[in-house]
Amino acid sequence: MSGRLRIDVFFDFICPWCLIGKRQLESAQALLRIQQPDVEITTVWHGVQLLPQLPAQGEPFAEFYLKRLGSAEAVGMRQAQVQQAAKSVGVPIDLSRIATMPNTADAHRLLERASVLGNTAQRDALLERLFAAYFQYGEDLGCRETLITIAQSCGFDAGDLVDCLQGDARPFVSNDSDAGAGSGVPCFQFDGRLTVVGAQPAEALFDAMCEALLDSHRARLPA
User: 10 Å Cβ neighbour count for 133?
Assistant: First the structure.
């Protein structure tokens, strides 16, 4: 079956399930390209700031989760769950290196600006690098200098980006509608017809893609 498939993904950089979901989506897309090579896939990433109340400098990571989950035991169980889920899809996550739970407003503004200025490959590289900065290297995504350095490593000019980094904890509001994230992140919308929430297995995302393509095909048939 030929055609086009638009995938809208709603996410936040600090959500490990969004990174895990990204890997699951990539696996599902690879499977679709094998089975339906004539389908043109367009993926659009929409930033959703999960914790807009955080101060510009963020909060200590350990203290944040201890306050959120109530005990060291609960934190340990949650982190073990995340690590296991990440390992199962080949995602390297090192929570021990994260010192700060960052305010992600500027990171989202950076990706949004870069998506306008750069090509798809640059956008994808920046998205991947921002996730790695947080979950692999423990870098502070709320730090302006860190964000600029990451963007430069992906081929962007700092002068084109610096004005979008506010550094004042003003909540991020996407230029695109984030209505699809109302049920949580990660959230995947396929052709605006079918929504899947959560880091679902690649097979479930593949099935949703096929269903959305079939629905689009049926909609084009004469009455």
Answer: 22
